[in-house]
Structure formats: structure tokens, C-alpha cells
Design brief:
With 196 residues, the protein is mainly beta. The radius of gyration is 17 Å and the shape is globular. 0% of the residues lie in helices and 57% in strands. The chain is built from no helices and 19 strands. It has a four-stranded antiparallel sheet with strand order 1-2-3-4, with no helix packed on it. The chain has a four-stranded antiparallel sheet with strand order 5-6-7-8, with no helix packed on it. The chain has a four-stranded antiparallel sheet with strand order 9-10-11-12, with no helix packed on it.
């Protein structure tokens, strides 16, 4: 479940038992319009851009971009060779970064739909991505229990941090990008200081 930045939209990933299909349902919280559904498969991730103009969701190995004004899919970002596990819009909304079971981190141009760069990010699946304010640094969390920081412009590896506890799952830049918060397992949280 995800809510848009402006609070107008709620996106929910659902499964219809009767038709055996998965879909993303968009509900407007500011009107009485009927919910809109977009079919998907193996939906692992959803995200709204900062302006609440677009919703991204994964459909197997691709990322679909929905224009919320026109209520239609306007782009499909194709390149991952395994299920997309995570993605995040870069703050200005012109780029998106994604991680996948294929172990890659990819940066996409939303103007053209083209892949800007791709790097082999981890030895196992990429579980999560986080983008610092301004998009200068990207953090990835891998199923190999490592956290890696990447230069956002070119995808160059800045550093690798072996997690202090097992089972690291999520990352989020906090305090203006000066710290990286990590979620371990179901309940433990840690902070890394001095994130670039």
C-alpha cells in the first residue's frame, strides 16, 4: 500500500481470487470516482513521484509508469532479467532507480524511458534502494547482507558496508541525507552516520 505525497491517491496491490489476477488499484481520496485498476503480475513494489503526477509499479521484470491525470500507462521500463524488487523516483521526477533479483541497480530516464546506466550491485538480489535528497547518492541493500552506496550521476560504487546485524531489508536516508536508517529483520533498526 502506498499514498501519494499530496494525500490524494492510495495505491493497493490486490489479488482477485475469482479471476486469479493481480492488479494495482488506485483510489482517489479527494473525489468519489470509482477506483481504477491496472493489471500486473508478481507486484513487489509501488511508488509515487514527489509531485504526485505518476505511479510506478512492477509487472514481473518491467516497471510500468501510470500518468495519474490521464489514468493510463505511459511507459514500460524494460531491461531487468528477473523480477523487479524495488525502485524509487529521484526527487526531481526525471529519473527512477530500480533493483532486481538479477542483482542489478539501474537508473532510468523518465523523459525517454531509456536506461541511463546499469551496474551489478550485489552478489544476490537487490532488496531495497534509497535515494538521498537531490539524488546524489543511492543506497542499495542486498540479500548478501551488504549495503552499498553509489554515486547517483554515473553509478560509480562509493563504498560497501557489511551489515552489523543479519537480515538487513530496507534503507532510508534521514536527517537531510546525513544518515542512513536500516531495517534488520522485522523489528531492529540501525543508523549509519556520515552517508555521502
Amino acid at each position: 500500500i502506498r499514498m501519494s505525497e499530496d494525500g490524494d491517491w492510495l495505491a493497493i496491490s490486490l489479488f482477485d481470487d475469482q479471476t486469479q489476477t493481480r492488479y494495482v488499484q488506485l483510489d482517489s481520496l479527494s473525489s468519489t470516482d470509482e477506483p481504477v485498476r491496472f493489471q500486473g503480475n508478481a507486484i513487489n513494489a509501488m511508488a509515487f513521484d514527489a509531485s504526485s503526477s505518476f505511479l510506478a509499479y512492477n509487472h514481473n521484470n518491467e516497471i510500468r509508469i501510470v500518468d495519474l491525470k490521464r489514468m493510463q500507462i505511459v511507459q514500460a521500463l524494460v531491461g531487468h532479467t528477473s523480477s523487479v524488487e524495488c525502485f524509487e523516483f529521484i526527487q526531481d521526477g526525471s529519473f527512477l532507480v530500480s533493483g532486481s533479483g538479477d542483482r542489478t541497480l539501474r537508473k532510468w530516464s523518465l523523459d525517454s524511458g531509456a536506461e541511463v546506466w546499469s551496474v551489478m550491485a550485489h552478489r544476490n538480489s537487490v532488496r531495497d534502494v534509497a535515494v538521498s535528497p537531490g539524488g546524489t547518492t543511492i543506497a542499495t541493500v542486498g540479500a548478501d547482507n551488504s549495503v552499498r552506496l553509489w554515486q547517483g550521476q554515473l553509478g560509480r560504487l562509493l563504498c560497501e558496508i557489511q551489515a552489523s546485524q543479519p537480515d538487513v531489508w530496507k534503507a532510508e536516508f534521514v536527517h537531510g541525507g546525513q544518515q542512513l536508517a536500516l531495517q534488520y529483520g522485522r523489528s531492529a533498526i540501525g543508523l549509519l552516520d556520515g552517508a555521502p
